[in-house]
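Posting for a labmate who doesn't have an account.
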Amino acid sequence: MSDASIEAFCPRFHEAVELIGRRWTGAILRALFFGTERFSDFAAVVSGMSDRLLSERLKELEAEGIVVRTVIPVTPVRIEYRLTAKGLALRPVVDALAAWAEQWLPLPSEPAR
């Protein structure tokens, strides 16, 4: 790889890692991959995360074009979040990272691998 291509690659790579590596973002993405769409469902599936932080992360993912937020005009108003094509393209990346972590990162109660 030439120096020029490393310079072009690194900023994008680091930006991607920063984006999906933010606290709770991976868990939110996994929930989206498995069909979670509503705020209350995210709050139930991603336990331990505050509503404020969940709202912040969903807004960040929306701003990045990874999810689309849809307001359903019913009473009470329902808001759903769905992955865009850009978001769906992250699935193999997140799945590969999860597989790597399963193989190489022990839980605190497990011996080192």
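Reply:
Got it, the structure tokens are right above this. The first strand starts at residue 67 and ends at 72.
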